[in-house]
Specification:
The structure is a homodimer. Chain A is of the alpha/beta class and about 325 residues long. Chain A contains 13 helices and twelve strands. The first copy, chain A, binds a DNA duplex (16 and 16 nucleotides) through helix 2 and helix 4.
DNA sequence: CTGTTAGCGCGTTCAC
DNA sequence: GTGAACGCGCTAACAG
């Protein structure tokens, strides 16, 4: 029983199928491509039989060479450990599936060098399109590596001079309005908790939004890879307690909220009176931990789905990229 | 400026490069494959020039058709939203990269039907190998769809009658020893917090391990997709308080710990005296939230790396799959 | 050191 | 309804 699969030494080709079914290779091809109407049902049955008997599986490389299409779309994200990236991919996939494409996920791991490699890889293989959550800020770098001319949609982070459609969050506006909201509640001192701001356009925008609304802003930058938890914790405590103003700790990314805020809550520093916290947050984890927190929710799934819709449209219509910017708003709730 | 990439109407082929460089197509092929030693540096330079001028990019489909290899390995995981799956992928990638392969990530989204589709997709395309975190329990189902004969390594969940190498955690043992550990501390009542146990072999093993050590076990099954947070919360409270025994809440998956334990801590139900909690936990998030928790840490990265090593070994040696079972132990700490 | 040639497996005109 | 034959872009002998 087990292992019957392995019986065929060489993988069968269309020729083998044709021979066994006693038809021509062209007929087999027609069968495979669903042109059943131009075929007697007898031959169709014979072919079907032969395919099963031989365990025949079409060679996609050969097909791609002819059709110049793979029905696969590369999705290159910044970090698959981020819920944002994975949820984005799920959104992408849902639309892609519905249109008979398959999403293939690649992870740049927040490494610009790796991003280059992956873009080259995508360039070198027959992917029909690319959805990219970029690390780079400049479209030029990407254009230099993507010599092949396939449709591209950029998500989440904005690119300078992008010739492609972009799908982004209203980072600046929502950061600003959120800050205003807390200002109105008396939180005049804002501590921004973030990875290196200059590393991503989203962070820059969020920071700019906060600064536009707040009067007193401190920044605490935490290294993505390595940080001293205790040290960051102490700095936060200091920033909260050394002023008489009411303090809002504003995490630019959910991860930092999850890492540092719970202990501050347990220890009573975040009491929702003298100090409170908010964050850009993609999952419901933070809310479950402390339901009283008001957080900014993005919609990565919708962003992915939107990006995929744009891409699919270009794929089927062969239209040139529109340089639209699609904004999926985030909301405080 | 922008768009210089788009200037070439049809993508150039090797023939074009050969013509422009005034050499034969074979020489270009040699150049591309790094056989520079068998070539005058003059011609090499000419070819290099031509390639750049023409923006030539080799057609991987054509190459795959000849070499029957893509240097790509498909990694099919159960759920990219789980840190376990993504970290596994990172471990896989690290080894793959080092051996000049690229990992390509696919997400079954915990959907068996989708798993089938993806396995067929992998089967239909030229992936050199497959690393699978399976949903299915039986190897036969997979064998039926994977007609092509490429090396496969199974990770995390065990398969019945697997003809492939498996890389797994010592779920039973560590669940048992952990339970014993807490029993010794007086926690004689164990509440198991889990998704449907029968859905995954890992969960079954963990549950069996707990039962083997505990005297009084209650099970609280939570639906992956939809659950009433308040209701689960209340059930937990009831289970903890309705007995005089000391209670250990044992989450079979980090997510459930994150979802329900923090509020129990805040409300004082989990006081590390009358009641405490533990979990299989892959990230450090839970530890940061409550450092006093003792949790079971798996090592998904190492599991991925191990799986990839086995796969690469089979890839380069063309050895048949060994039916080994590789165990990466988890530890309580 | 370099060119010629024969396929790889399949889709697609054409004919019949 | 069905088949023969060409070509997709490339690699791998084999010549020279």
């Amino acid at each position: 029983m087990g292992g019957s699969v392995m019986e065929n030494r060489k993988t069968a080709t269309m020729k083998d199928v044709a021979a066994l079914a006693d038809v021509s290779i062209a007929t087999v091809s027609r069968f495979l491509n669903g042109n059943l109407d131009r075929m007697s049902s007898t031959t169709a049955a014979k072919i079907k039989d032969a395919i099963e008997k031989l365990n025949y599986v079409p060679n996609s490389a050969a097909r791609q060479m002819i059709t110049k299409a793979s029905k696969m779309v590369a999705v290159v994200v910044a970090n698959i450990d981020d819920y944002f990236s994975t949820e984005l991919f799920k959104g992408v996939s849902s639309i892609l599936e519905a249109n008979n494409y398959t999403g293939v996920l690649f992870d740049t791991d927040s490494n610009p060098e790796r991003e280059r490699q992956l873009i080259q890889l995508v360039n070198d293989h027959t992917y029909d399109g690319l959805i990219l959550q970029p690390l780079t800020e400049s479209a030029a770098t990407i254009e230099a590596d993507m010599k092949r001319d396939i449709p591209i949609v950029v998500v989440d982070r904005e690119l300078i001079h992008s010739p492609w459609t972009q799908v982004v969050t209203n980072n600046y506006e929502v950061a600003k309005s959120t800050t205003s909201h807390f200002m109105a509640a008396g939180y005049t001192h804002v501590v921004v908790l973030t990875s290196k701001i200059s590393m991503a356009s989203t962070r820059e925008e969020r920071y700019a939004g906060i600064k536009a609304a707040a009067s007193h802003v401190d920044v605490l930058e935490v290294s993505e890879e390595s940080y001293n938890h205790t040290q960051v914790h102490q700095k936060l405590v200091k920033l909260i307690t050394e002023t008489t103003e009411k303090t809002l700790v504003f995490a630019l990314k959910e991860r930092w909220l999850l890492e540092f805020i719970p202990s501050l809550i347990v220890q009573g520093y975040i009491d929702h009176d003298q100090a409170t916290a908010t964050a850009f947050s993609d999952t419901s984890t933070a809310r479950n931990i402390e339901p009283r927190l008001q957080l900014i929710s993005q919609d990565p799934y919708l962003m992915g789905a939107s990006a995929a819709e744009v891409l699919v449209d270009q794929l089927v219509s062969h239209r040139r990229p529109t340089q639209d910017k699609i904004i999926i708003p985030a909301t405080l709730r």
